[in-house]
Amino acid sequence: MMLGWDPSIDLSTIRDDLTCRTAGWSFLHKAENNLGNIWKMLLKRLESSSFRGRPFIKSESWQPETCIAYLNAGLKLNKTAFAASHVTATSLPGRGSEITSIRYVNTKLAIRNVFFHGGQMIIIISYNKARASNNYAFYIVRYLPPSLSLSFLKYLAIIRPVWEFLAKQLHMPRHSSSEFFFLDPGGKKKHLSSTQASSTLKDLTRDLATPWSLSLYRQAALAIAKRYLRKLVEKTNFYYSSDATDPIRMFAAGAGHHPRMLLTTYAIDRALPERLQPELLDMYQRLSTIWQEWNQQYYHEYCLNSKLESPKSQRPIAHENSGCKRLADHDDSGRASKRIMTPENGSGYCDIGHDRSDGFLYNAQYQVLICVTCGSIIQPGPKSFYSHLNGIHRITGVACKALMDRFSSYNLRPFDQLEVPREKVPQISGLPTHSGFRCNVCPESSGSSYFTVSSKKIREHMPIHNMGITPMRALQLEKFQACYIQTFSSAKGRIQYFEVEPVKD
Asked: How does strand 57-58 pair with strand 61-62?
């Protein structure tokens, strides 16, 4: 994402104000940090560079295929960032609704959750569940290790602004600017949902006997803490010290006050929230450090050493099927993995002088108008154009009229008159490419092809040919096989897959 650029940033010089509530403000906007315009240096590199073999700019126009690939890489990086912060970075994991709705900039209604303190990035969550029992909410602070703090800082200060700039150039509202750190990959919600977060974690732990969801990982982490890190949290109170030998309790007694009065009223550091003073921050830092060190030590002792001792066990094993086992899915969901690819040659794209950076591509060969954001064609006609632009992408006014006038100038085919390819064709630019399956028996029996993205559906399809063999045997006899497929429309009831050539490296 950085195109080989690795700027030097000293974390110890990053300053923040934990009490500032100005809407739209964060440590990125603090003048002495010099982070406000650093993203423009990466943007200049993009203008003269390429991404995965394709230039960002051609004929002074941003290329949609390249920008879409960059945006998709950004979404994947964002999901990886969530997994890194939740599993390897923070201390004891929080609840799904807490960790997925983290803000990195202030809003009018809420203060952010991402701060810098002592040269480390910290995530602060105001925990309100305790208010029902004791009328007090307390803060939970999670310290990120320095290496991850630096990576996240570069992401927020450099990659994220460039990512949002490209989305704006392509008029893609689902990738518009957001105050939330972790984004919804589908762009339908404001931030990552708990279900999506669990899916990300399950994908990360798919090699385990039982892949972990958010709740399962939280239970396991708390069990580890109670068993191995118990001494760290003994006799600890979030509101005041309970140990008679604790210096805070002794100082409070000498001053004639309760420890809580000393901690919340006297010698308050106004650069920090009232109930988030240095003593509590120090405790949370120790908790995060102990948790991270325990994870690292466990990895070196039980994971890394086992790899070094038995390298043969880490090599891929070619499994020979005996013919008596059911065909296994590569994906627990029973669906082939979905990928976004773009062809090398553009497959019939007609460049008639219009700006291609708005996310709409006209394919002269098939006479279709493709919305790159939706990965589907748009039905011809003013009513359909307006419904798509205004209803889905919230494009209104002059911009909407200009696009409708441009679309009306194209020679477009209605969906029911489309010529769906019957043979393998080059990938069509702008349409998502899927890993799927093709039945090799259908062309011989019915003259038409059958495609699906589901390994379960291709197994259920094979018995209709009455061959008297199992799906496993059908695969061995190449009665069906894996392939790459596309469809002009992703709308329910209008999906008609056709086979395309694999993307070239």
From this structure: antiparallel
The Cα–Cα gap between 30 and 17 comes to 9
**269 neighbors 278 (Cβ within 8 angstroms):** yes
Contact 220, 214 (CB under 8 A): no
Q: What is the pTM of this model?
A: 0.56
Q: What residues does each domain of the chain span?
A: 11-228, 238-267, 348-417
Distance CA 257, CA 343 (A): 73
Q: What's the length of the chain? A: 505
pLDDT tens, residue by residue, 152-210: 999 999 999 999 999 888 887 666 678 999 988 877 788 888 889 888 888 888 877 77
Provide CB contacts within 8 A for 390, sequence distance 6+.
396, 400
Task: Please name the residue ranges forming H helices in 391-462.
Answer: 397-408, 442-445, 455-461
**6 is written with which tokens?**
């690795």
The helix, strand and coil proportions of the chain, stated in percent and rounded to the nearest 5, come to 40, 15, 45
Half-sphere exposure of residue 487, counting CA atoms within 13 Å on the CB side?
Answer: 18
Supply 306's token pair: 């086992």
Q: What is the DSSP letter of 454?
A: B
Residue 179 neighbours by CB distance under 10 Å: 17
pLDDT digits (tens, 9 = 90+) for 112-128: 999 998 899 999 887 66
CA dist 389 and 371 (Å) reads 10
Average pLDDT of span 240-262: 54
The 3-state secondary structure of 371-394, one letter per residue: ECCCCEECCCCHHHHHHHHHHHCC
Give me the mean pLDDT over the 63-80 stretch: 90
Measured CA to CA, the distance from residue 417 to residue 420 in angstroms comes to 9
Q: How many CB atoms lie within 10 A of CB 20?
A: 16
In whole angstroms, what is the distance from residue 64 CA to residue 85 CA? Answer: 31
What's the order of all strands across the beta sheet hosting 360-363? Answer: 360-363, 368-371, 376-377
Side-chain-side CA neighbours of 195 within 13 Å: the count stands at: 3
* β-bridge partners, 485: 434, 499
Task: Report yes or no: 143 and 122 within 8 Å, Cβ to Cβ.
Answer: yes
Q: Which segments of 385-454 are extended strands (E)?
A: 433-439, 450-452
Helical ranges in 409-453 per DSSP H: 442-445
